[in-house]
Amino acid sequence: MMKSLILIGCLFVTGLAAPFMEPTVTMASMAYTRVSVEAIDTAAPSLTFKTTEGQVWTLPAVSADLLRGLQKGDTCSLEIDLENRVTKIVKVDSVSP
After folding, report:
1. pLDDT value at position 10?
2. Which of 49, 57, 91, 94 could hold 35 in an S-S bridge, CB 3.0 to 4.6 Å?
3. CATH class of 30-91
């Protein structure tokens, strides 16, 4: 019994027990700043937007309420969760040069 406890202790100290432990889940997201709204689909619900690099993406939104008040051409910042869903939209005021 004592040998088993010493062995388990050694596994934890050396990090070899890591494969036997359940990984922790972390909530991470990605943010896009200054994207241009290309299309809004409240039925899906989904948002199509263009990044400053010129990439066009269509991603589902967590709810249709999130898309209310958006129009094509709006400039926004977006947060996207690990399941590639838009979770937050903040309109950015356009400043004329």
Report:
1. 55
2. 49
3. mainly beta
